[in-house]
Amino acid sequence: MDIQLPPEFPQSAVDQFDLLREQGLLFYFPTDGEVVHYKRFKFEFKISTSIAKKPILAADAPERRGKGGPFVDPDPAFVVARPGPDHVVELSMHAMMRPHYVLHTRLFAPQTDDLDLGDWAATWAVMAAIQERAKQPPMMIYNCGYEGGASQGHKHVQVFTEPDPGFTLFPAEALALAGAKSSEKTTTAETRDNAPIVQHPTVPYQHFVQRLTGPVTPEYVLTVYQRLLAEVRRAHKEHVEKKLAHATNGVNGKNGTNGTNGYKTHKKSASGTPGHNTPALDDLPASMIANNVIMTPEWMCLIPRRRGGKDGTGAGSLGMLGMLWLKNTKERAHWEELGMTEHLVWMGLPRDDLK
């Protein structure tokens, strides 16, 4: 599936981004990050007014069912490309990168849907243009479902230049630790179809990573995505079955009262928030389909999600990698109160294979 973008893209989009920012219509306030190492996990916290202004729809908002929303009738000033008949590329009004693209379906589709071949074709066209024309490393994310951190209910992915938090992102590190060669670009068809799916040995919540090898095409990316998505669904199913069995037998967890391998589940914080100490049945996933998708030209990572956040402190795809975009210092303090890594486990699925 071949999708053509305007020959001036992405430079034309950068120019439009700068113009909208000058006009006060687009919010972008670059800020330095705070890097924190906590329990063998690396975080980067960035506080930005851009995020403070960003609207987040409630889980039951009618816009999540196609009744209105910013993508139904997009502002032409923000539209920078139409990759094919079914997709639109807009500039994000609340940007953390320059530029920050939102690629959405032209007609409404729910944010809980799987990505299909057309979605991947449009996404890869934008990523390839960033890589080949702008000579920058691209990244895409898909926050599937409210519990996956989706702020809008209209199906969309986000694309931007890969952030550099000052440390290696754990999917890339997981592949390196598993013996994958980051520079490898050729392989057999059999290896491409059966490439190892790995998890980082110290990340305490479930995630599934596969290296992308050989020529990257929409069809190949879709195959990798569906393979990793099967792992996400298996993990969701097994987690529910285990929790139900524990509840039936009067057991809360394997290695503690919360079943999260020794990680606390958010005891009452200094600010008085009730925390996350709940009975086993209440620990069942709020969603069986929510997940995060992150892809670069080198790898794809999927992370199963059961919760979007607590008291306004949550995470999307980048947040689950440790890169948090925050509204204010109060939210930053709340991450400390909720245990940081423990909060990520609470939003994702705990691993049973870690000691």
UniProtKB/TrEMBL annotation:
Signal peptide: none
Composition bias, Low complexity: 248-263
Renumbered residue ranges of the record's region Disordered: 247-283
SUPFAM superfamilies xref list: HIT-like
Pfam families linked to this entry: Ap4A_phos_N, ATP_transf
Name of protein: Uncharacterized protein
InterPro entries referenced in this protein's UniProt entry, alphabetically: Ap4A_phos1/2, Ap4A_phos1/2-like, Ap4A_phos1/2_N, ATP_adenylylTrfase_C, HIT-like_sf
Domain ATP adenylyltransferase C-terminal: 201-349
Domain of life according to the entry: Eukaryota
Organism: Sporothrix stenoceras
Domain called Ap4A phosphorylase 1/2 N-terminal: residue spans: 16-163
Source species taxonomy: Eukaryota, Fungi, Dikarya, Ascomycota, Pezizomycotina
Database matches in Gene3D superfamilies: 3.30.428.70
